[in-house]
Amino acid sequence: MPKVLEIGHRLQILKVVSRIERIPPADLVAIGLDWFLRGATQNIMDIAPPWNQYTGNGTSQHIPHAEEVLQQRFVDREQLKASVPAQLEIGHRLAMYKLTNRLSRVPVGDIVAVGMDRWLRLMGF
Asked: CA of 116: how far to CAs of 1, 7, 19, 40, in Å?
């Protein structure tokens, strides 16, 4: 995960601002990736309640879009550790996403970075 995207920090802010401290970050990652793999619409109401009500006041201006960061040749990265529910089949769905979109040379981590960045921006973080 590119460090400049601050995904882990943004997830922590989402937890605190939304008062959902008891929810593990991995579950938030699962929700964000599930949204992305289902089509990533830009309508907050397409995220099932109660998740659609946990919104912030906007993404900080100093955080570039994932697509911009991933175009750079060298990117500082950090590990985003998340064990997501097996029933969501996130690994399999990410592999199918790569095949369907002919992204065989794109690392799964980059797809996850784009998905999480888009979801966090939609949520306002």
From this structure: 10, 7, 20, 10
